[in-house]
Amino acid sequence: MRNNFRPFRLSGAAVHRLTIATIAACAIAPANMGYAAGGGEIVVADPSKHFDAKGKEPSKFTIELQDGLRKTLPFDDQRDFDEAKRGFIAAPDYKQIMAEAGNVAWDIGSYEWLLEEGQTFDTIHPSLQRQAILNMAYGLYEVVPDKIYQVRGYDLANISFIKSDTGWIVFDPLTAKETAKAALDFINEKLGERPVVAVVYSHSHGDHFGGVRGVVDEADVKSGKVKVIAPVGFMQHAVSENVYAGNAMTRRMFYQYGVLLPRSPYGHVDQSIGKNTAAGNLGLIPPNVIIKDDYEDLTVDGVRMEFMNTPGTEAPAEMNT
Ligand SMILES: [Zn+2]
Fold it and tell me: pTM of the prediction?
């Protein structure tokens, strides 16, 4: 699990060759993570005190350590905060996205206590606090003018939209159907309605494919009308990692990120690579285009994409585009 800087290069009729870097936040996401991540209920606790009656304040040793880190780490460098705002188009007028099961799948508002100016939380490592604030980016962003867009802050990963001749090519449709659909609806609302002509799964982790049913209809994939493109070995590894090893990974994640705790400086804060996984419907539509060779080219709806398989990197089945 780490930040995955994935250059992708595309060209097409109206698109000169260009290279961009995008951040695809990654996590190993078990099949039942959608439910597990939020536990079906999001609890936000008063940030000024511990949420548990038996909970303790940080010791003087912890406070000294955090103070030392604040003095020695380069927190004066604010460039990341400026860059995180670059290309911002709009935020939606809602903070919550509901799951089909009736629970709240996503609530960016549950983390807003992080945004109060000038706070230092002695219960949070200063670097995690900084990262958690950067991860509050929420809404639609332009990455390459009139060509590449992202919706951020709707799930653990970002979802990217490439403007093709007649529609959208979607890169990595989040963890949950509900958040992926909300992202598609939002970009269509802001930039005009376009059909999804293709989906690319960059790799076999659930936060990069689980929401696919929110952006395409499986019948259109089966008929070949919509291309779903994935690296060689995708299905084998998506199943072996997320189903066979799913329960063990879910339990590990509970401890690693504290996702079942109330959202508070004393509880769940962030997952560093993104805020959290959405507690919605995780699904999978098998790809109908497999990238088998080391390098392959494919033109979809006027956009030429160059794929490079990179198995065994951040995931066992993975590719750059
Ligand atoms: Zn990943």
Answer: 0.88
